[in-house]
Amino acid sequence: MKVCRTIEDFRKSRPELGKMALVPTMGAFHEGHLSLMRKGKEIADSVAVSIFVNPLQFAPTDDLDNYPRQEEKDFAMAESVGVDAVFAPDAQSFTKSIETTISVGGISLLWEGEHRPGHFDGVATIVSKLFLATQPEIAIFGQKDFQQCAVIAQMVQDLNFPIQLQFEPTMREESGLAMSSRNEYFTHDQKAKACHLHDTLIAASTQIQRCDQSINEILLSAQQSLIAHHFDPEYFAYVDSMSLEPKEHRISNGRLIVAARFHGVRLIDNIGVYL
Ligand code: AMP
């Protein structure tokens, strides 16, 4: 597995990688990341992983400085699933004196966009740079970050990036808690209790399928349940999977999306609601 620190270095290896799938990440790997890499092995000649803790997508009050970093362990994990190349640029030089912002608008202004202003501009700008630096034929993202998938899809369509997108399901702990690098902030006990977020999504989904309560009642009781379990919800919404617009009535392609803080850690999750 080749580790490249600069765009020039990556470009030297690029020809021998053939049809390449890129998995953009911020490192601190878990099974969720590895599942994307394995998918890449399945659908492309080679897989490249980028590791870059993107300062542009963190607000000043966010956890940028404390974000878990474990580069050597990440390299070993990537190698264990057959990753061919890692692009791990130096944070300073990759974003040095950057003046250009990719701002997707529309879909990026809802939910996460509302609660984390500028977040998706940071994501879109850096993902664009990663696409141009590594030139993948395929790029793979996790549905754990459901709105991020929608924002990237819009960007790829609008800017005509010649890249096929692949979105993969969320990997979960046995408890149902979505795997996340941020779960490392929890104590053992807190992590065990954090699965209530997923339990609440499942309960709300079942209630929507049962059809004996209004969507608004269901969403309200989900938020109350989260508060009762010491979560601080930012949003809990039933949306159209494509537009992410909120829906007050049952629809065929609905999705429940949630963001909530638990012991100071901001968690997001989502599930499809199948009628
Ligand atoms: P991150 O390192 O958190 O920026 O995530 C890198 C990629 O891994 C993104 O496309 C995420 O959506 C994806 N990812 C993160 N957690 C999971 C998970 N539990 N299951 C599947 N994909 C995930």
Main pleated-sheet profile: 6 strands, parallel
Q: How much is the average pLDDT?
A: 97
Range of helix content: 25-40%
Strand content: 15-25%
Distance between the amino and carboxyl termini = 45 Å
Structural class assignment: alpha/beta
Radius of gyration: 19 Å
Q: Widest sheet: strand order?
A: 1-4-3-2-5-6
The number of strands is 9
User: Which stretches of 5+ consecutive residues score pLDDT under 50?
Assistant: none
Number of helices: 10
Shape from CA axes?
globular
Structure in words:
The longest helix is centred in the middle third of the chain and has 16 residues, at 119-134. The protein starts with a strand and ends with a strand. It is globular, with a radius of gyration of 19 Å. Helix 6 crosses helix 7 (146-159) and helix 9 (196-210) packs antiparallel against helix 10. The protein has ten helices and nine strands. It has helices at residues 7-13, 31-43, 71-80, 91-95, 111-115, 119-134, 146-159, 188-193, 196-210, 215-228, and strands at residues 2-4, 20-25, 46-51, 85-87, 138-142, 164-168, 231-240, 254-262, 265-273. Helix 3 (71-80) links the parallel strand 3 (46-51) and strand 4 (85-87). With 275 residues, it is an alpha/beta fold. A six-stranded parallel β-sheet has the order 1-4-3-2-5-6, sandwiched between helices. Strands 7-8-9 form a three-stranded antiparallel β-sheet.
Nutshell version of this structure?
This protein has 275 residues and is an alpha/beta fold. The protein is 38% helix and 20% strand. The protein has ten helices and nine strands.
